[in-house]
Amino acid sequence: MEKELNSLVKVGVSTIMSVSYCFFLPPRIKSGFFRLVSILPVCVLFLVLPLFLSFPLFSSPAAILLILADLKLILFSFDQGPLSPLPSNIFLFTCFTCFPIQRQKNPKPQAGGQDQMHTWIFAIKVVLLGVLLHLYHWKTLPPIMLLGLYPPFLYVLLEVSLTLFRILLTIILKCNLEPHFKEPYLATSLQDFWGRRWNLLVSASLRACVYTPVRRVCQHLMCSDDSAMLISVLATFIVSGVFHEVLFFYIIGEMPTGELTLFFVLHGVCTVGEVAVKRTAFAQRWVVRQMLSRLLTVGFVVVTTWWLFFPPWIRSNVTEKCFNEASLLIDFLRRKLIFLYLKTQVISVN
Description:
One of its GO terms (cellular component) is membrane. There is one protein chain. By secondary structure, this protein is an all-alpha fold. The chain has a domain at 2-103. The chain contains 14 helices and no strands. Helix 2 (33-48) runs antiparallel to helix 3 and helix 5 (112-138) crosses helix 7 (150-173). The longest helix has 32 residues, at 318-349. It starts with a helix and ends with a helix.
């Protein structure tokens, strides 16, 4: 554990030094190709750094944050994304680069009743996360039932942890930050789920890095704007699938199986088909009830995650590894604290 923590510190120091370089030098270069060239070495380094971590407990958040940082820096090269306009100081620049946060552009004041409702909903999610963690840690349910609980477990784990992190950074940075999720279980279509409710920071980054450039290129090559839009949607899902395969390699250390890419390609094809059907005269006359559309959308997402998304992670026992590593970390920190306490007591006696 001590060796892994030393590696984590080295990765953190390397990241901060690289981000500091990006704050001081590239902004002096005009936005565009030459600024991108000046930032590319940092982007390559960020792709290498997660390889120095062997524990999934550390390598998974490091890989996610560094890949997100790469996307932000690429957008920064063209004066876009969360880093544009340039934050006023290096601390803000480092936070917005390294952490999964984005400044809220048009904060809307919420009514007291609505804010209280969100608080109650969040409290329920915290309780649900505690129950699911207990079930997975002690394995009190049959394996098939544990598999069925993976989708809600992943969602509430991300929602609770990222919301608490956002609240903390909102207090520290003294600015409003964009939420990461917008009640994805209320999605009425795949387009609504992926574009407006699930993992909003990543969706915005992929929209700016992949969707918009591909659409512009396709608009120049073909006459139909609709075709360009559908191709760019599919391209965005393909890139997202490749990113998840890379994350799998970083976290597990095994060659990807292609199931994650297939999952996103399937959703990309279905989203493209959904958008195309919505534009037909028949679909515009046929109104689907909101409750039915929610059940179909969430049901499709859950079934396909069971089929394609979760099996690679389950086969690698990544959840069990993270629980074991968390126990090792807690035990290591407890022993260190006891040692420091005893040391201070000996010094005070002498």
